[in-house]
Amino acid sequence: MTRIEILGAGCANCTMLYERARLAAQDLGLEFEIEKITDLNVIVGYGIMSTPALVVNGQVKVSGRVPSASQLKEMLT
Amino acid sequence: MSGLAATPALPGTRSALPARLLPLALLAWVVAYSLLSRVSTWVTRDALRLSPATHLGSAVEFFVYEAPKVILLLALVVFGVGVIRSFFTPARTRAILAGKRESAGNVLAAALGIVTPFCSCSAVPLFIGFLTAGIPLGVTFSFLISAPMVNEVALALLFGLFGWKVAALYLGTGLVIAIVAGWIIGRLRLERHVEPWVYQMVPGDDRPQERPPTWEDRLHHGFDAVRDIVGRVWPYVLLGIAVGAGIHGWVPQNFLASIMGRGAWWSVPLAVAIGVPMYSNAAGIIPVVHALLEKGAALGTVLAFMMAVIALSLPETVILRKVLRPTLIAAFLGVVTVGIIAVGYLFNWLI
Questions:
Q1: Which CA distances in Å does B294 have to B256, B257, B267?
Q2: Using a CB-CB distance cutoff of 8 angstroms, which residues of chain A are in contact with residue B198?
Q3: Counting beta carbons within 10 angstroms of the beta carbon of residue B187, is it exposed (0 to 12), middle (13 to 18) or buried (19 or more)?
Q4: What confidence score (pLDDT) does residue B13 get?
Q5: Count of structural domains within chain A
Q6: Cβ–Cβ of B209/A63 closer than 8 Å?
Q7: Is the N-terminal amide bond of A52 cis, ω within 30° of 0?
Q8: Fewer CB within 10 Å, N- or C-terminus of chain A?
Q9: Domain with A11 in it: what CATH number?
């Protein structure tokens, strides 16, 4: 089970990252759960200073930008 | 709108080969830019058969020339800044600023505010990240003031519509306001007006698991920035230039001299008072500002208005309220507002 977290205070980019990550995970046929996280404690706890950020299985994969679909697939595998 | 006919393809394509695309995009840019004046004259006078002496003809020619010109300049500057920004992440900027003393730290923070990628939606995590790393409050504010105010969109538009001198003046005074305002906030010892839980947060290690970027990645970053930023702001640019074109065509010359001219001392504080609660991006406001100036408004008044609109906004204040108590918010707004008013008077006096 892959655990995908999208961190950010709900800006337009956060929503875009959420959708793209969800589609990428589906395309890959992963068994996954995805969650939007707006709690500052969690965001800061990961050491993130620019949102949106993508965390996969507890590891920060990217922060401050929305990667392309192919980059996302690479990050999810 | 007929102006779109002259807008060439933007260099923001989805190619996986940005390095090979770059010379091509630059060539297309240069060709398009050099054709601007001829195309706008042709569209207005030959295709639409409008005389530049009429209100409509003058407005249309202005729009058809300025809109593609500004979008082209914007694309070029955004690309350049996008590439530069791939060298600066917030984490790296924080590492540079940590351990710097106050005065030098304010200068460095204001300068880094220009090149570090920043979005006001991540102002809060960035603020916490800076403070918990031991960066002084005033230095953090220098960054937070400079980052939105001195941005590439504002600089590109000022350069395109007013020339390099005004763009340089804006850059210089924006930096000075960020440095001085941050320094004053530091001197005021307002640390206790930060919400206390901020200092108790334990930040993790900001290390995305990514390989270091190659030049290919950096160019990609530049093209992405063009697609993202130009793709987002072009409607505002067109709308702003359309309003500007209307003012250009219909409002009589020197109409604004008595209201927004140099002679009216109250015009600067009034312009700032109107600008602070307004929320717009640089892209929408600058073309309007350009048209105001042309009709006799004073440069200082107009720059002050623009800085007030861009640098201080209600949404960002609301976001920062999460981490700042009202006293500190008031100090922040007060110090920056006074700085902007001072800049307005300085320009009206100088030019």
A1: 9, 10, 16
A2: none
A3: exposed
A4: 38
A5: 1
A6: no
A7: yes
A8: N
A9: 3.40.30.10
Residue of B nearest to A40 (CA): B125
* DSSP codes joined into one string, B55-87: HHHHHHHHHHHHHHHHHHHHHHHHHHHHHHHTT
Beta-strand pair A59-63/A32-37: unpaired
Q: How far is B203 from chain A (nearest CA, A)?
A: 5
Between chain A and chain B, how many beta carbons pairs sit less than 8 Å apart?
82
Query: Which chain A residues contact residue B89 at CB under 8 A?
Result: 50, 64
| CB proximity under 8 Å: A 15-44 to B | 40-41, 43-44
Amino acid B305 reads F
- Give, in degrees to the nearest 5, the angle at Cα B72 between B69 and B75: 150
Name the residue of chain B whose CA is nearest to A39's CA.
Answer: B125
First to last CA, chain A: 12
Q: How far does the CA of residue B221 sit from the closest CA of chain A (Å)?
A: 10
**Residues B75, B67: Cα–Cα separation, whole Å:** 12
Q: Which residues of A are catalytic?
A: 11, 14
What does the block give as tokens for B134?
Answer: 């031991």
Report the b/e string of B108-128 with b at 16+ CB within 10 A: bbbbbbbbbbbbbbbbbbbbb
Give the ipTM of the model, two decimals please: 0.85
> Using the beta-carbon criterion (under 8 Å), do B204 and A11 form an inter-chain contact?
no
DSSP state at residue B7: -
Q: What is the largest CA-CA distance in chain A?
A: 31
d(CA B162, CA B169): 11
3-state secondary structure of B119: coil
**Spatial separation of the C-alpha atoms in residues A54 and A24, rounded to whole Å:** 13
pLDDT, tens digit, for every residue of B9-38? 333 334 456 677 888 889 999 999 998 888
3-state DSSP assignment of residue B342: helix
Q: State phi, psi for A7 to the nearest 5 degrees.
A: -105, 135
The 10 Å CB-count burial string (b at 16+, else e) for B291-301 is: bbbbbbbbbbb
Q: Hey, are the CB atoms on A49 and B91 less than 8 Å from each other?
A: yes
What is the C-alpha to C-alpha distance for residues B47 and B59, in angstroms, rounded to an integer?
15
